[in-house]
Amino acid sequence: MKNSFDFKSMLANAWVQGAIPPALLIVLVIIVEIGSPGFLTGETLALLLSNTAVLFILATGVTFVILIGGIDLSIQAVASLASVILAQLLPSMGLLAFPVAIAAGLVFGILSGVVHVWLRVPSFVATLATGGVVAGMALWLANGRAITIEEGGRASTSWINATIAGTPVVVLIAIGVGLASYLGLRYSRFGRQSLAVGAGEPAAYAAGINVDRTKIVAFALSGTLAAIAGVILAARLSSGSPSLANQLLLPAIAAVIVGGTAITGGLGGVGRTAVGALIISIVRIGMTFVGVNIFAENVVFGAVLIAAVAITIDRSKIAIIK
C-alpha cells in the first residue's frame, strides 16, 4: 500500500521550496538568540547587514548565471583582482579607480561567457580556467602581496564606510543592486529569456531566443557584480589582495542555492538569494556567538550546500546524475 504522505513529492512542490528558506531564516534567528541572548540588538543587526551586503552582491551576480543553468567559479578571483586594481589606482586616479576596477570585472565576465558560448566549453570549466587567469593577473599586479590603501587613498573610500540616516552605505548599495537586479529579472526581456534558457535550452532556441547572447550577458553581470563586491571589500578593509575574496566562493553559491534557486536553472531569483545570504551570514555569525570554531565554517557551508541542492534540484531535467 502506497504511503499517502510522499515526502519527496512535498519537497518538489514549488510553494514548499519557496517557503522553506524564509522559515529556516526565522528558526535560525530564534536559535541564535536563545543560545546567545543579545543577538537581536541594533548594533549586531547592523553588523549582520553590513557583512551580508558584500556576500549578497557577489551571490546576486552568480544568481544570473545559475538561472540560465550555468555556474561561475571565477567570482572570487574577479573580486580579488578588482580590489588589487582599486588599491593600486586610488593614489593616482582617486574616485575614477572605482569604474576602472569594476570594468575589469565586466571584461572578464564577458570573457567567461564567450569561452563558454563560442568554444562550447562547459561553464564550470570555462569559469574555472578564467578564474585561474584572473587570479594569476592579480598575483602579478600585486607582486603576490596585499596592497595597503594609504591615507591619501582612504579619502576616496571613506564614503563606503559611512552611514546615511543610521544605515551603512554598503547596505544601501546592496539594496540598490538587489532592486535593480530584481526588476531586471522580473520585467525585462533579458530576465524572461534567462528563465526560459534555464528551463530548457532547446525550447528557448525554438522560441527564437538568442541563447548565446543571453548567456554572455549573464556572465557579464556576474563579473561586474563580483568586481563591485571586491571594491567594497577593499574599501572596508583599506587594502587590496590577490586572495581577498578567496573564502567567499562557497558561501556565495550556497546563498543562491539555500535561498531556493534551482542549481539546474529556470527557477529562482534575487529575492531568494537575499534570504539565502542572510541565512549564510546568520550561520557564520551565529557560530561565532555560540563558540563554534571558525575553522569549521566551510564544513558547515559544505553540508548546507549539499542539503540545499538535494532539496531544490529538478531531477526531471537530468536523466542521469553524474
Automatic annotation (TrEMBL):
<feature type="transmembrane region" description="Helical">
    <location>
        <begin position="44"/>
        <end position="66"/>
    </location>
</feature>
<dbReference type="Pfam" id="PF02653">
    <property type="entry name" value="BPD_transp_2"/>
</dbReference>
<dbReference type="InterPro" id="IPR001851">
    <property type="entry name" value="ABC_transp_permease"/>
</dbReference>
<keyword id="KW-1003">Cell membrane</keyword>
<feature type="transmembrane region" description="Helical">
    <location>
        <begin position="298"/>
        <end position="314"/>
    </location>
</feature>
<dbReference type="GO" id="GO:0005886">
    <property type="term" value="C:plasma membrane"/>
</dbReference>
<feature type="transmembrane region" description="Helical">
    <location>
        <begin position="124"/>
        <end position="142"/>
    </location>
</feature>
<feature type="transmembrane region" description="Helical">
    <location>
        <begin position="96"/>
        <end position="119"/>
    </location>
</feature>
<feature type="transmembrane region" description="Helical">
    <location>
        <begin position="12"/>
        <end position="32"/>
    </location>
</feature>
<dbReference type="GO" id="GO:0022857">
    <property type="term" value="F:transmembrane transporter activity"/>
</dbReference>
<feature type="transmembrane region" description="Helical">
    <location>
        <begin position="216"/>
        <end position="236"/>
    </location>
</feature>
<keyword id="KW-1133">Transmembrane helix</keyword>
<keyword id="KW-0472">Membrane</keyword>
<feature type="transmembrane region" description="Helical">
    <location>
        <begin position="162"/>
        <end position="185"/>
    </location>
</feature>
<protein>
    <submittedName>
        <fullName>Ribose transport system permease protein</fullName>
    </submittedName>
</protein>
<keyword id="KW-0812">Transmembrane</keyword>
<feature type="transmembrane region" description="Helical">
    <location>
        <begin position="248"/>
        <end position="267"/>
    </location>
</feature>
